[in-house]
Amino acid sequence: MAANMQVKLDKYWESGAINYLLFVAIYLDPRYKLEYIEFCLNRLYGADKSKDMLNKLNDLINKLFEHYKVMYPISYESNGSTTLSSNNASQSRAENGEDDDDWDNLFRMNVKKKQRDVQRTELERYLEDGLEDTSPTFNILTWWKGKTDKYHVLSRIARDILSIPVSTVSSESAFSTGGRVLDSFRSSLYPYTVEALICTQNWIKSPKVVDLESELVEVEKLESEFNGLVTIDVGVIAAEFDTITTTTRV
């Protein structure tokens, strides 16, 4: 059994068959990031193989980042060409000293330019920041919600990736149970009848909680009763044997 389990485990965790979204989820965990993934892959697969896997992961993350950057641009990028041309004209007038009121527009344009530069290096800034401390009360979704302004694009990726269920076993099991209860001969059952059937099936299959201490007491009690019966039977046989012997002598 253990050998069969190992074969399935190796097949699932083979480097070419791993779902890399699992790695993306760890990458987006501020307690681990890319350093933890690199550490684990080096120990599991060696330096050469882990390097190829890390390159593949980085390509996937860069593609996700570029895709989400288009989907969720910063608000100043959606003002349109008219606003940009107006800002350019304001910048020109402000540089020539024609209107002091346009200095505010020039200042805001410089800020926006810096924000555009920062957005291009958002991945690098995230990796350069220190790791968060592990804590039982740490809520990763709350952490990313608070970092929306700092990591405009990454926070959107984290919101979508980290909300994906790790497994679909529960939903598949529910559909399988429904198929076993509602077959072609039971398709017209009332809802409360179906509910009763499913609940009864669940109660029957539910594991029984075994109290080892009470069970051992019960076993010792049975053993003592059995030993008493054996002793009584031996005494009765001995008495009967004595009676038979006395009768024979007479």
UniProtKB/TrEMBL annotation:
Residues 1-68 form the hAT-like transposase RNase-H fold domain. InterPro entries: hAT-like_transposase_RNase-H, HATC_C_dom, RNaseH-like_sf. It comes from Trifolium subterraneum (Subterranean clover). This is HAT C-terminal dimerisation domain-containing protein. SUPFAM superfamilies: Ribonuclease H-like (SSF53098). One of its GO terms (molecular function) is protein dimerization activity. Residues 122-204 form the HAT C-terminal dimerisation domain.
